Amino acid sequence: MMRVWRLYREKVIISIVLGLIVAVRGDAQSFSLSNNVVYSATLTPNLGFETRVDSTWTVGLWGGFRPWPTDDKALRKYRHLSLDLYTRKWTRGTPWRGFYYGFDALWIHYNLSNLKLNYFGMFGDARHRRMQGNLYGGGSFAGYAWDLGSGFGVDVQTGVDLSWTRYRVYDCVHCGAPVARKNKVYLLPKAAVDLVYSF
Questions:
Q1: Which pLDDT score is estimated for 71?
Q2: Low-confidence residues of the chain: pLDDT under 70
Q3: Peptide bond into 178 cis (omega under 30)
Q4: For 87-107, b where at least 16 C-beta lie within 10 A, e where not — what string?
Q5: Which residue, among 115, 155, 163, has the nearest Cα to 138 in the 3D structure?
Q6: pLDDT recorded at residue 147
Q7: In the list 21, 48, 78, 151, which could disulfide-bond 62, CB 3.0-4.6 Å?
Q8: How far apart are CA 9 and CA 114, in angstroms?
């Protein structure tokens, strides 16, 4: 039973969170969809869904998924799945307009190899080896949203997450047993430029 729970716990948690978000409020002008164009520039499809809790608070779930290269024998890998559950406080009293601040909880599953980027010391082991693991984090952020009319808007934000990752290191991109298991803690900065549609 514990093995089954370990295999499906993320899916169960995501389903519960999505159900809660949808159940919070169901009237018009209370939802938004967003796409982080900074994240899209890394060829990672992503989408955020957010709903109003009251006149000043919203809660949302954002995710990105980069499945390629799908060939396990490819030398360079940057495959990952990320989910970010967040809440925002809108200082003007109207969601999706003006200044806001918020808090988030982050989870990322990644499979990386032959990467030349180091991103604040996180991916050093992936330069000549493969690393695969999970990252968990939580933090805060702030930003500003512009209403462009007809439900469309632009949202910019920056923040930081205190994150912990546990991963395995492999000698090659497609091989058996790991050569090392590591745990690391990072202060992870983040930035986003979102295109938003609210309805």
A1: 78
A2: 1-29, 117-121
A3: no
A4: ebebeeeebbbeebebebebb
A5: 163
A6: 94
A7: 48
A8: 30
DSSP string, 65-129: EE-----TT-S-EEEEEEEEEEEEEETTSSTTSEEEEEEEEEEEEEEEES----TTTTTGGGTTS
Query: 194 CB contacts (<8 Å, ≥6 apart)?
Result: 34, 35, 36, 37, 48, 154, 155, 156, 157
Distance, CA of 90 to CA of 97 (rounded, Å):
8
Domains of the chain: 2-198 (2.40.160)
In this prediction, residue 113 carries a pLDDT of: 86
**Residue 17: how many CB atoms within 10 A of its CB?**
15
pLDDT at 64: 97
| Residue carrying structure tokens 């992936």 | 126
Query: Which two three-digit tokens encode residue 95?
Result: 């969601």
Paired with 111 in beta bridges are 79, 132
Taking the C-alpha atoms of residue 123 and residue 171, their distance in angstroms, rounded to an integer, is 15
Cα–Cα distance for residue pair 73/142, rounded to 1 Å: 41
pLDDT for residue 70: 78
Q: What is the mean pLDDT of the chain?
A: 86
pTM for the model: 0.81
pLDDT of amino acid 126: 79
- Tokens linked to 124: 């050093």
Give the DSSP letter of residue 42: T
Tens-place pLDDT, residues 18-51: 555 555 544 446 999 999 999 999 899 999 999 9
**Distance of alpha carbon 189 from alpha carbon 51, whole angstroms:** 25
